[in-house]
Amino acid sequence: MSRQQPAPVKPSGMELVFFYVCPYCRRQIPVPAPLQPSMIACDVCRRNFPIMPVDRHSVHFVRIMFGDGPAAVDPDYL
Q1: What is the pTM (predicted TM-score) of this model?
Q2: Domain ranges of the chain
């Protein structure tokens, strides 16, 4: 019995990831669109440090431009 491979699936959403450099060990820490000031912990040295938030309007603009994911699909692939 053979199973057919399903058709490729488009993205159903998206997230913007920002990188913050740990001030202690210099590791780049990925953080999904932090909209509020907060503390994060480095996954290498385990120390906490504060980060600045990103602009909510800029994040919203990028999500609109890419249709929250599906519009970012490579047109040559369609």
Answers
A1: 0.81
A2: 17-72
